[in-house]
Amino acid sequence: MDEFTIQPAPNTVQITQQQRLSMASGPYYAAGQITYDSGTGFWLGVQDGIARFSIGNSAGNKMTWDGTTLSIVGSFTASSGTIGGWTIGADYIRDTSGVVGLSSAVTGGDDIRFWAGDAVPASAEFKVTESGAVTATNITITGGSVLSSLLSGLIGLSNLNVAAQGWTQTSVFSVLDLNTVQWGAGTFTTSGGTSYSIGAGNTGNMVARTFIYLDIGVSTTAYQVTTTASTAVGAGKVLVATAINGAVEPSFEVFSGIGGANFDGSQIVAASITGNEVAANTITAGNLSVSQLSAIAADMGALTAGTITLDSTGHIKSGQTAYNTGTGFFLGKDGATTKLSLGSAAGNFLTWDGTSLTIGGVPLIRELISAAVTIPSGFQMLLADQLTIDSDVTIEGNLAII
User: Fold this and answer.
1) Does the structure show a pLDDT above 80 at 201?
2) Which range of residues forms the domain containing residue 260?
């Protein structure tokens, strides 16, 4: 038969050859499933006034249509077609323009599995290969972490935050007054090649340690100042210099670029400056203030002075270590008395002890006594040989022979 019609009764018909069926009226056609999506087989009909269809195993792989939604449980194979704006191919699913997609193609290499940004996956701005290699030309990570051991290769400096880059700057820093440091206009340049034109500025009247910094989130043309150290560092910030007010003038230090510093003497380690750090002929008398010349270890050279006045305990000596001690001379205070000694205390000498002038030594005595001379009262002679007094010698008062 080529065509037949099934009436409401009986409710079941067995068809043994391929024929065209039409239902004039009746609830369903079924094989195995006795109701919609129940058991194993198929069900096609109307239930609750809605045309429905189910095929497969209601407890396993199946496909159903409930009048609204087509559901498939199990494997689905398609080598062409479209679904939800996506095009299905033999080895890919991609959007209609091809710039976003998934690929199952196998070439034997590290094939691209996901891509976005270009219709040619290999040229896409974002792509992931089957080995997990990721290429992203512009990425922002807002959370999570990346192990440093997994990082390799070079990160372009221009991709680093300005706070993580090297830098230089050309603004000249100088002292304005005892409370203020100023700087001239200049250029701040990062190691990534970004330049900022910085205007002239100053710290204002400082009352505490002040930090001068660049904050590109606030301005790319002016340095900022703060007395809070933590404010001067962080993302988008670079600490350029620090300064503090002083009693005479402020101190400052610039950390990079053309540099610059002005230090207070209290910041120099005691006894750390030697002659190696002082240029020749740069320290003049006006820069010296010492209580005594012995504080200066140097060859004094030739001294020129109108007068030399010794204090109450001062003296001048050479060779002799004290009054009439050793060989040489001594002139000055010995205790509370001004004294003079010249020569050798153990040989020929001349002394003045504040009261008496004493000459010791035979050659000198003989020369003195052999000529016409008047010996004053109180004169003493230390005699180590015979003494002959000529007729030309006049003795005034007593002559002491020692």
Assistant:
1) yes
2) 162-267
